[in-house]
């Protein structure tokens, strides 16, 4: 398989690249940094919004690792993923998006989401709402083979790579220890498993440590 990872210098993206490379997949990274600080053998310095259809032609999967750091940048979640959708529209290339936990449903009726909870951390509300809107816009795209993968609520950059995870869907899910936690490394395993299987096209899935 041939995979493109955009916003490749991000911490989650680098874990996904490392996992994919370890499985022998061909990875091409696109990032904003001058240097290639990923494990991809091929790296192109290119912003997402400068990518062209030709840049992404021939890939089986494109991974969108974009993540905004400030409140002012949050609208870029929708802008960048929709731009990638436009480039991939009508093709067989799948788009996998690194999502957030805030948009996971917390009731069976799917009318309330985690970010609506009174104890949801205020500092994470801007990104939760931005990625919730990103998911809503993806749901409108029937012309793209997208998959949005939400991590657990406690998404740990330096967490342990256990090699195991629970695959869930739209519902906020706890493991047997009543935890909603996953490391970047285990999230990357789930992402690459989905890259290889392609089982959840035009769906949002979620993952939590087993």
TrEMBL record:
Name the UniProt record assigns to this protein: Putative NADH-flavin reductase
Domain of life of the organism encoding this protein: Bacteria
Domain NAD(P)-binding intervals: 8-193
Gene3D superfamilies attached to this UniProt entry: NAD(P)-binding Rossmann-like Domain
Organism from which the protein derives: Mitsuokella jalaludinii
One term of GO molecular function: oxidoreductase activity, acting on the CH-NH group of donors, NAD or NADP as acceptor
